[in-house]
Every structure is written in C-alpha cells, then in structure tokens.
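User: Round two. Same drill as before: sequence, then structure, for each protein.

Assistant: Same drill it is. First protein:
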Amino acid sequence: MKRTIPFFIAVVIAVSSCGDKSKQTENATSENCLLALVDTSVVVKWTAYKTTEKIGVSGTFDIVQVSDANKAETALEVLKNASFEIPVTSVNSGLPDRDGKIFGHFFSSMLNTGL
C-alpha cells in the first residue's frame, strides 16, 4: 500500500496533459490546466510471496472503481477526496487456477472488504 499513492499520482500526471506545447506558450496567460483522474487508467499491482525464500508472484486487480475524484491543478488535489473500490474477486495473477487459490487463502476470510 505504501507504493499505491505515489503510483496513482504518477498515473494522473502521465495520463493528464494540457495539450500541445506550441499552443500552451501562446495561451499560457489565459488558460489554466486542470488534471483529472481517468477511471480506465488506474492499475493496482500486487506481489505475494510464496515461501520463506520470498519467491514473488505478481498480479493485478482487473476492476478498480474510482469515485469522487475532482478536477484540480495538482495531482495531490485530484486524489485528495478520491476513493477507490477494488473488488477482491477481480484478482488476476495470470493463471485462473492460482487466482482461485489466492482469493480463497487471502481474501475470502476478510470480514469487511468494503473499506
């Protein structure tokens, strides 16, 4: 989770742009650029470690729902009131058989997954 917020900030900056630089220099005094978080650009990656040797198994969540993200001048302001909902059933490790095991061992025992 420590890497999630900086990753979202990087995604917002990369996805959002103000347009062509030549036009921006002409209209720099008359227009303000607002950043927005695009729902389809958010990717949450995870790595689980299988053994004491820390053999990593990586994957993503197929569904990430973003709400309350406002347009703002900075990426931090865009994320300030944003909330993210990740259905744990959308876990994707690249192998469907393994996905079921990961869901069963890690997420099925969670009492409240809607935080």
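Second protein:
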Amino acid sequence: MAPYWAKVCLLIMCFGLTLSSYAGVANAALPPPFRHRIVPKPIPRQKPSVPSIAEGAALFAESCLSCHGPRGNGEGFWILPTGTSAPRLDNLATEDWPAQKIAQVIAKGDGMMPAWGETMTPGQIQSLTLYVESLNQRTVPVPKTETPKLKPQTVLVRMSH
C-alpha cells in the first residue's frame, strides 16, 4: 500500500505545481493595477503689476504702517527693542536717498527692517518705493490710510548666540 499512497502524493504534488505555474502565467498576463495619475493644474501667471502709488499705499498700510506710522513719520505703534521708534520715511529727500536705495532696503532689509524681497514681487517693491518717494514730495497726492487706534507697544526680541 505504500507505493499507492506514494503515487497519490506524487500526483497531488504534480497537480499543485501545475496549478501554481498557471497562476504565475495568469498574473503576468494581467495589466498592472490602475493608478491614479494626478496632473497638476498649471498656475496661471499673474499679470505683472504696474507700479502705482495707490498699490504702494495699500502695501504700506499692510506691511509698514505699524512701525513707520501712517504717514511714514516714524510714529508707528511698535517700538524697537532699542527703545526708539522706526526711522522716518518722510524726510528721505533731504538725506539723499535715491529710489534704488529705497527699493534695495525694502527688498533686502536693513538693521531691524525686515527683508520683503521674498514676500513681495518686484512690481510691488516698485509700487512701495513710489509711495515712499511720494511721502517726500508735496506735489504728488498721497492717499490717506486708516490708522488703527492702538497704543505703542514694545517688541521683545530673543537673540541666541
């Protein structure tokens, strides 16, 4: 009887090997599983802004007013850690500040002044430069900005070495 069971086991093993070989071929014939393909939408290019004093005034009110004051006179409601207020921007004409220097300070920062070059576009920096220049000229109308009614505050800066 032993040879009979040996034949049956051999037959079952051959049948199993045959099935497993067909399973491998069958899986190879199937296409790979469907994968979603995400195609990013192209980001529409923004129209380059035409530098304007009005845009500069809006940018000034949003980004500069808190330190330099509503008219650029250094009467903002933040006081620098040195205990002084931010520099006046309405007297740059008397200090020989050309537009290129103003734009450079806006873009790269200077001292306690943060750099806005990574945040603002070149057109926005030009608009802000035009507005700051308009603070120094009496002939150019300067748009009025709303000044929030806040008390002066002290900015604490932690510096690590």
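The CA atoms of residues 134 and 140 lie 6 Å apart.

User: Perfect.
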